[in-house]
Amino acid sequence: MFNKKILIVLIVAAMLMTVSCAPMGGDELVLADAGWDSIQIHNGIASFIIENGYGYETRVLSGSTAMTFTSLREGSIDIYMETWQGNLKDSYDEGIESGDILELSVNYDDSRQGYYVPTFVIEGDPERGIEPMAPDLRRVDQLHDYWELFEDPEDPGRGRIVGSPPGWEVDLIMKGKVEGYGLEEHYNYFSPGSDTALATALVGAYEKGEPIVAYHWEPSWVMGMYDFTFLEEDGFDQGKWADGYTCITPAMPVTVVVNAELPEKAPDVVAFLENYQTSTALTNYALSYMHEHDAGTDEAALWFLREYEELWSEWVPEEIAGKVREALAQ
Questions:
Q1: How many whole angstroms separate alpha carbon 95 and alpha carbon 255?
Q2: Where are the domains of the chain?
């Protein structure tokens, strides 16, 4: 009998230790990776805080924008740290209205995207001996006059506009602009295979002092490290947008969105994400750090957490911040 009592005590103690050592949440939380560096950095920042501060396991599910956003609505993804809602307008609005997803915060609201050229194309670069090539170029609809400057190396006699990687929702918009402005008369629309291929094309042309017109966005490490000029368009107009996207791509808040079941699954994480807010400039700094130091996105996330403790410590209770600091110090 005495041995049985000891055995029962030991079993109960083991059970209590198991409970006390278990993560506060206990569940695995899945974050969306739609394929670009900045979302991966924000995933790294959030995952480090979620794992080390709140005790949940995290996992990243990669795929196209459309696929990952559908997975968010269906529940196989819990968290979308960088949702460019303007590129997903119909699906985004439907998801909010149906209650499939919840918008928790604005990660940053000063982003933009569209067509860019190296600034030396317009202004020249005396230090590199580059003369202005198109001093009057300011707008997308002026590209009609400069197709020979941006000649397609694989199709002489036509210009080349480098667009979005295929599979991104914005690829349809960028193609639509080429058609809407009638630029297909003189230009081929070229889709790079990935965001890496797009960055390589932009940086390669810039460093060689060669002209290029290409899609890009801010924040990005390319725009943070090199001098590019954004080609203007008319202000946003719904009619023009519907008729070939012949106006500026609307500025959009880049939001943190979650599956509607997350508040029940992990209310403490939801409270953290409701406070999550950075900026285009801060994201640019993290992206520039990554490329200047040949670092991965997770390493850039750790750099961000160490560099901007005053910022992220405001997102979480002090007890959680202390756990995150301990993990960073290891």
A1: 14
A2: 23-111+252-329, 112-242
Half-sphere exposure of 64 (CA within 13 A, CB side): 14
How are beta strands 112-118 and 214-218 bridged, if at all? antiparallel
Which residues of 150-251 form beta strands (DSSP E)? Answer: 159-162, 187-190, 214-218, 228-230
CATH fold for domain 23-111+252-329: D-Maltodextrin-Binding Protein; domain 2 (3.40.190)
The phi-psi region of residue 142 (left if phi > 0; otherwise alpha if psi is between -120 and 50; otherwise beta) is alpha
Q: What are the structure tokens assigned to 226, written together?
A: 């090199």
CATH 3.30.470.20 fits 112-242, yes or no: no
Quick one: tokens of 112? Answer: 């933009």
In this chain, the answer to whether the domains covering 23-111+252-329 and 112-242 adopt an identical fold is yes
CA 250/CA 19 separation, integer angstroms? 49
Which amino acid makes up residue 102? L
Give the three-class secondary structure for 274: coil
10 Å Cβ neighbour count for 286? 26
Q: Taking the chain (330 residues) in consecutive chunks of 10 residues, what is each chunk's mean pLDDT?
A: 46 40 64 93 98 97 94 97 87 96 94 94 97 98 97 96 92 96 97 93 97 93 89 95 92 92 97 96 90 92 97 98 96
Tell me how far apart the alpha carbons of residues 180 and 251 are, in angstroms, rounded to a whole number: 19
Backbone angles phi, psi at 243, to 5 degrees: -105, 65
Tell me how far apart the 2 most distant CA atoms of the chain are, in Å: 96
CA distances from 66 to 79, 87, 249 (A): 15, 10, 19
pTM above 0.85, yes or no: no
